[in-house]
Amino acid sequence: MSQSNTLRNLATWKSVCSESDLVNNSGVVVWYDGAQVALFYLPDAPDQTLYAIDNHDPESGANVIGRGLVGSIKGDLVVAAPIYKQHYRLADGQCLETPQQRLRVWPVRLNAGVVELGVS
Amino acid sequence: MNSTLASLKQLKTLIVVGNGMVGHHCVAQLIERGALEHYRLHVFSEEPMRAYDRVHLSEYFTGRDAESLALSHASLYQTPGVTLHLGAPVLEIDRARREVITATGSVAYDKLVLATGSYPFVPPIDGAQGDSRLVYRTLEDLDAIRGAAANARRGVVVGGGLLGLEAANALKSLGLEAHVVEFAPRLMPVQLDDFGGLALKAQIERLGVGVHLSRATQSISAGEQYRYRMNFANDEFLETDLIVFSAGIRAQDALARQAGLEIGPRGGVVINDECLSSDPDIYAIGECASWNGSLFGLVAPGYQMARGVAALLCGQTAEPFVGADMSTKLKLLGVDVGSIGDAHAHTPGARSYQFIDEASASYRRLVVDASGKQVIGAVLVGDNSYYDTLLQYMQNGIALPSEPAGLILPSSAGAPSLGPGALPESATVCSCHNVTKGSICAAIDSGCADLGLLKAQTKACTGCGGCAGLLKQVFEHELVARGVSVDKSLCEHFAYTRQELYALVRVEGVITFEELLAKHGRGHTGCDVCKPAVGSILASCWNQPIMDASLVPLQDTNDTFMANMQKNGTYSVVPRIPGGEITAEKLIAIGVVAQKYQLYTKITGGQRIDLFGAQLHELPDIWAELIDAGFETGHAYGKSTRTVKSCVGSTWCRYGVQDSVKMALLIEDRYKGLRSPHKLKFAVSGCTRECAEAQSKDVGVIATEKGWNLYIAGNGGMRPRHAELFATDLDDATLIRYIDRFLMFYIRTADKLQRTSVWRESLEGGLDFLKDVILDDSLGLGAELEAQMQLVVDRYECEWANALKDPEKLKRFRTFVNDKRPDPDIHFVHERGQRRPIMAAELNLIPVIEELA
């Protein structure tokens, strides 16, 4: 279940939680080194099933992205920010409504029941 | 708008004198058209308050405050380059030096716009002073009237014209016995003919307003029964505690006279077709201007002048002002009055059709030209639903039908309407902002497919709002005409409406989103539109716990965590307090929880208590304690039954005729947990005094001597709607049966996120159709609807109690799944003894971790 081919040149994988902490088709949040990272798990998605994206919502200023609803818009998997409802692409954090808005994303993988973030 | 970057020396100075509706419109137009590239703009206003809506002035006495009457947000006048001088009357214009002089000094101008409006004319009458010489024009005038009304029983308005009747309405809403004294032999002599005046008089008298025609007040002396006595000819008199004069307006042209500008024969600054006065640097617009010897006392022509002048000052071309249509449509004291074009049939050869209904005091007159082919005027009293069509016939010269009288005759299908397709491109839809059908079509062609957006883009329907119905018709007609088949698909995943999906779920017994998506949708994920909509349908049909694994991902954020997310990401918690009745023990229990978790508490409008500021991980603990104390979830987070508000009813109240609290408890217990297309609010009042405000609820119940009256489809909020009386004198069982049917029929047929009020208005056949379905069971659905409701009722379970029993469901209630700390970015400050979220501005005062985004 490795995730993507951009991960090769990463220095390290850090474990953040266990697979059983994830909620199917929904989000949870982990604390990693001062950052809040939202993890979305879509076990039935065709390609990538696990996504890690910044929990901070720049529009509301609150840390709520992990509590947004996931969906697909024109083929892209997105999360809808729960306060003002902007859509952010899970793959790269791009906001669909505001081109200059983009959330940080992390490489992420499931490794023997453990969720790991890729950090450089 | 980067005018501040240009050298200030290059900017000329433009002064607008007057900040009424027309002066304000001119300023807004100037800013919008880029005038600040060329001018520094100074606006002088005699009044202390920025421009407000004089058309709806009487609402000042029925709850609207000065700020809500304001025409714009205060920020408009904080635009760089704009200076608004309030309470600063211009005392003099020095045309030679090109300066205006105020009490505090002088300001030089390059261009000047006079928008000084008008003042009320008060005839010279002996003894008129103080409270016997009030006028009705400004907010200050209204404050004076309010002051005079404090100890008064009766009030008189002198003048039975449009403004006079508005003033009478204002007196009535202050609780006074209102009278109107008119010099002419009929009311609204300018707009109405004799029969129209008679019908209006009859309707107004039915409302308890005294009407005295053909009376000239000769003097005012001290009264015997009331403070003042108004003496008429023939020793007739009328006593009253206060007198408001509304006997016409005069152009406020004192400044112009002093400055030596040319003045019209009936007053007013003489202007040409460009609204230019006799001085090439001074314009005049609105009620202070005299064009071709005429003054224009309506807002639409004033706006037209304002737009023209703003365009000219910005170096743009402007349509010349060539007079204005003075047609008008009003609701005076709740009575519809309309006047179109040549209402008096003064045009040579004009012929009239008239319809008189003495029973309801309605009157309609249609005036056609000598050839009998065109509408040239009309008078309407009692029913303005005929107005839009008649106005369009006149303005666009549309040929009359073969039976012109049909245009004003009552018909079982309601007022005849000219299909929006029949209107030419040039037809004006919104006269306040001069929006034509053509410009609406252009907006639609450039991609506008949303009515709200259309209003924002074209400004249509943002003035007096009178064109709302017509605008919607034109909009929908044009969409259909463009083959936009008004796509009612829920979203890209379902090519069905909510109603169609509801039927599929119900008929096929679908119980999961995945199943519905696989059978009838596209893709395998859904989105934030279809997931909550389908989640709501599944809940309405089968009422399974929303925290079940297959249902969790469907819920909108508030339903997912069964609490209401607030702006800082914390939640508010609302336990159910059925009927607003609560024991001391339970009140204390809520207090203990609030204190323990430091929650901000506020009493809600629905007679409950809202507890704010809980973090995600605190919700299960808070609910465990609330459930221990006997509470259930209040569903404040759901599109579902919220509250049943009640008054205390016959158990305590000396007026109560039924036990309203008991009925409220019965209703709340029955429908709690019911999910629906939108939230549902209920209320029960124990007598006709209606203290529970049931007529503003989706379902309202009001006690009668014999049982209960049922009201439906009311709501408060952004667009309030009074509930409609649906059935009367019901016993308990019948009441519940009808509510069962009504709610389930709504759930079955409403669009997503559609309140009962909007749904009810969209029903073809209207209230009568709904009565047929619910009361007479015309579709044979009654038993089915009741059974469906019973299933939902039987399956009720408090979702919080359900979730607390299941560790798997509680997994999600963790701020961080790998760390016990709370969200370190949530900060509170104390205010009035409670916590509240810190504001962004206050946040700068404390160190924050550098943000990544």
UniProtKB/TrEMBL annotation, chain A:
Q: Which InterPro entries match?
A: NirD (IPR017881), Rieske-like_NirD (IPR012748), Rieske_2Fe-2S (IPR017941), Rieske_2Fe-2S_sf (IPR036922)
Keyword set for this entry? 2Fe-2S, Iron, Iron-sulfur, Metal-binding, Nitrate assimilation, Oxidoreductase
**Keyword Metal-binding annotated:** yes
A molecular function annotated in GO for this UniProt entry is: nitrite reductase [NAD(P)H] activity
The organism's superkingdom is given as: Bacteria
Instruction: Indicate the segments forming the Rieske domain, all copies.
Output: 14-117
Q: Which GO terms describe its biological process?
A: nitrate assimilation
Tell me the SUPFAM superfamilies matching this sequence: ISP domain (SSF50022)
Pfam families (UniProt xref): Rieske_2 (PF13806)
Q: Please report the name of this protein according to its UniProt entry.
A: Nitrite reductase small subunit NirD
User: What organism does the record attribute this protein to?
Assistant: Pseudomonas veronii
Automatic annotation (TrEMBL), chain B:
Chain ranges of the NADH-rubredoxin oxidoreductase C-terminal domain: 327-397
Please name the CDD domains in this protein's record. Answer: NirB_Fer2_BFD-like_2
Sites where the protein binds [4Fe-4S] cluster: 647, 653, 687, 691
Which Pfam families does the UniProt record give? Fer2_BFD (PF04324), NIR_SIR (PF01077), NIR_SIR_ferr (PF03460), Pyr_redox_2 (PF07992), Rubredoxin_C (PF18267)
Q: Which UniProt keywords apply?
A: 2Fe-2S, 4Fe-4S, FAD, Flavoprotein, Heme, Iron, Iron-sulfur, Metal-binding, Nitrate assimilation, Oxidoreductase
Binding-site positions, siroheme: 691
Q: List each copy of the Nitrite/Sulfite reductase ferredoxin-like domain by range.
A: 566-627
Instruction: Supply the PANTHER family for this chain.
Output: NITRITE REDUCTASE (NADH) LARGE SUBUNIT
Record-given protein name: Nitrite reductase large subunit
